[in-house]
Design brief:
The protein is α/β, with parallel strands linked by helices. It contains five helices and 14 strands.
Length: 256
């Protein structure tokens, strides 16, 4: 498996519009962060993890191939604002979007034309199928087993995903002890760490490090980062071995 980080920034992206802090004015490409999303390649299958408002810009940087699944963690705009831009991928057939019931209902209400049944679609609209999933109930994408798990984004229940030895979790603040068995034997953990200062609905970088150590992940990449952290080079140097600040365009291979 290979994971490409399409975006590693928080909801406003980095640089933050109008900000002149050292991170926002940095010339280092590692400090330029689009909204959080990732593309997972498993053999010849392509699985998109969240589809935010920077999706079009992100996908112009990668080969144009079929998307076999789009996994949605939750309905916040920075994770779903690019769904309309899936329409070029309908060239390969209908695109399957997976979301839990609460999230799926919200999306169908907000952008109903994206989820029009085949018999009622008019020319030009995206051909997207909404498939509803539930925590702890594995589902299959052309032979790739995916298990959703429950995490809390403040008071909002959202999904993380276990795929083979990869665990992908964004926007988490807390997780119940009962979820930890789903993270056994993780090789690569992708986990959010917004900043150093405490936040009501996101982990800090220190929280992310402690969580990685708690589940004994072999390799960890921190995402959903704001401009309130220091420069990438400074933050990276502070972290323990095998825990990294992810950056846009980074590709990592994951042990099967």
């Amino acid at each position: 498996m290979r994971l490409r980080f399409l975006g590693t920034g928080t909801s406003c992206g980095v640089p933050f519009i109008g900000c002149t802090c050292p991170v926002c004015t940095s010339k280092d490409s590692h400090d330029k962060r689009l909204r959080t999303s990732a593309l997972l390649e498993v053999d010849d299958k392509n699985i998109l993890l969240d589809c935010g408002p920077d999706f079009r810009q992100q996908m112009l940087q990668v080969p144009f191939r079929k998307l076999d699944a789009v996994l949605i963690s939750h309905e916040h705009y920075d994770h779903v604002g690019g769904l309309d831009d899936l329409r070029p991928y309908c060239k390969f057939g209908d695109v399957n979007v997976y979301a839990e019931d609460f999230c799926a209902t919200h999306l169908e209400e907000r952008i109903p034309y994206c989820f029009t049944p085949k018999e009622k679609r008019y020319p030009g609209v995206p051909a997207i199928n909404m498939l509803r999933i539930s925590p702890h109930v594995p589902f299959d994408v052309d032979g790739v087993k995916i298990t959703p798990l429950r995490v809390m984004h403040g008071k909002l229940p959202i999904l993380g995903f276990r795929i083979g030895r990869l665990a992908y979790i964004t926007d988490m603040k807390t997780i119940a002890e009962s979820e930890l068995p789903y993270l056994d034997d993780v090789d690569t953990l992708v986990i959010n760490g917004l900043r150093h200062k405490e936040h009501g609905s996101h982990q800090t970088i220190d929280d992310a490090v402690m969580f990685s150590e708690r589940i004994h992940a072999k390799h960890t990449y921190i995402i959903h980062l704001s401009h309130d952290i220091s420069l990438h080079s400074v933050e990276e140097a502070k972290l323990p071995e095998d825990i990294h600040i992810a950056y846009d365009g980074l590709e990592v291979d994951i042990q099967d």
